[in-house]
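Reopening this one. Same input as before:
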Amino acid sequence: MRAVNGVYFFRDTTVSSAGLLRVADCTFVENALILQSALVHFDGSVTLEGGAQWRVEGNNVNAASVIGMPNSLHKIKLSGSGTTVVVANNRQVEFRLTLFNCFPSSMVVTLPARFVVGCNLQGDEEVSYVGVFPEGVVVFGCGTCNDDAACYMPGTESVDRGSCSCSCKDGWHGTS
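Same output, byte for byte:
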């Protein structure tokens, strides 16, 4: 995909009732003329509630941010049991922009909702999350298994941490 922004959310957006918003396995080449290019760009707030899932995983971006929410007035708000945001296993090839173009104060996580981030790379180096995300965000490193990042937990029976693979509950299936 070659564009200014990959997925663009205009105005406020709500995902609820076990809804799934997934941006995965994309190769995104930005428009070099735009200074705030992002794979997922928010021009408004996003609310996830009631078991909603937002997953940004396995993407490759070239000189763009993975997530762009450059306005500090916009928020990412999470609430409710099972509500989870996962940003994992993404790679930024050229790093003209930050991998995450958003303000820590823009993320509001109300327990038991979870925001999980880990194993995101700039080139071949794992990204430091210091000062990027607020307290309460779960951070994991490459080579470790995080249940929320590995599996869609509402439909998961068990997790094998040795292989970091998931077994689905009856009636559920994985993404692959």
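So the earlier flakiness isn't reproducible anymore. For the record, The longest strand covers residues 5-10.
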